[in-house]
Each structure stands twice: as structure tokens, then as C-alpha cells.
Design a protein that fits this description.
Blueprint: H1 4-16, H2 25-40, H3 63-70, E1 76-80, E2 92-96, H4 97-117, H5 120-149
Helix pairs in contact: 1-2, 1-4, 2-5, 3-4, 4-5
Protein name: DUF5063 domain-containing protein
InterPro entries: DUF5063_sf
Length: about 150
């Protein structure tokens, strides 16, 4: 798990800082999203039953605005509601790459905050919890959007 915080930092910078001048931003973002996905499979912790304070998102900058300045061509995309329903060709939905990255960044910032302010066990527990129920789908959707956009 030594790679977790550095990988988080590589992703969250796009939501914390505007107008970053980094070459190959999308490729670097893609690489680090895949790293986070891979690190999920290595989570090991003992549950920490301490009653910790909650993460305060109100202290963060405007993440969506910063993402917009860093990835100007991120936007809406079409997606399927139920991928397993192969006979239903009409139920589609609208996804948003900026929303995907914003949610991923918020989840990662909370993981990092919990590790640094609560405990490693609390941060890893939250990583496992939020990844399976939330971040994983956003990562898959964003990676798919990036692949389709660049074809």
C-alpha cells in the first residue's frame, strides 16, 4: 500500500489545481486510475472501531471547475442502463466524465484524509467500502469514455 497515497495525489491534483500544464494528462490520469483499481485488490486491514471525526468536503476548492480547466473536452456520454439486458436496445442514460472524475477525486480525498487524520485501518476500510459501492463504476465509466473519445 506504499503506492496508495502517491497514486491518490496524482489523480486528485486535477481537481485541486486549475490549469495544470502537464503533457499527456489523459494518459497519466488513465494510468493512475488503473493503479487505484489494482490497489483495491491488495487491501488488508483490521477494522478500527474508534469513533473518528468525519471528512469535511466544504473545505475543498471547486473540484468540478478545476477538472473543467484541466480536461476541456470531458463531457457527456451515452451509456447503457443494464448491460446484461441484450434484448433491450432503448434503455440508455447520460453519463458525465467530469462528474465521474469529480466523484473519484472526492472519494480518494476522503480515503487519504482518513489515513492521514484517523488511521491507516480506517482509510483502508473506507477505500474498500467506497470503491466497491461507488468509485469502481465511476472509474470504469471514465476509462471507457476516454477510450471511446480517443478512437
Amino acid at each position: 500500500m506504499k503506492e496508495l497515497i502517491p497514486t491518490i495525489n496524482e489523480i486528485v491534483k486535477y481537481g485541486l489545481l486549475p490549469n495544470l500544464t502537464i503533457s499527456d494528462k489523459e494518459k497519466l490520469l488513465e494510468r493512475n486510475l488503473v493503479k487505484i483499481y489494482d490497489l483495491y485488490f491488495d487491501i488488508k486491514y483490521e477494522f478500527d472501531e474508534t469513533d473518528f471525526p468525519d471528512f469535511d468536503q466544504s473545505l475543498l476548492p471547486d473540484i468540478r471547475q478545476n477538472i473543467s480547466s484541466n480536461f476541456k473536452d470531458f463531457g457527456f456520454y451515452k451509456t447503457i442502463l443494464d448491460i446484461n439486458d441484450v434484448n433491450n436496445l432503448t434503455d440508455i442514460a447520460l453519463g458525465d466524465a467530469m462528474d465521474d472524475l469529480s466523484d473519484i477525486i472526492l472519494d480518494l480525498l476522503e480515503i487519504k484524509w482518513r489515513i492521514e487524520n484517523n488511521s491507516l485501518a480506517d482509510g483502508l476500510w473506507y477505500f474498500q467500502f467506497i470503491f466497491h459501492g461507488h468509485s469502481q463504476q465511476h472509474i470504469l465509466d471514465l476509462l471507457n469514455f476516454m477510450k471511446q473519445k480517443n478512437e
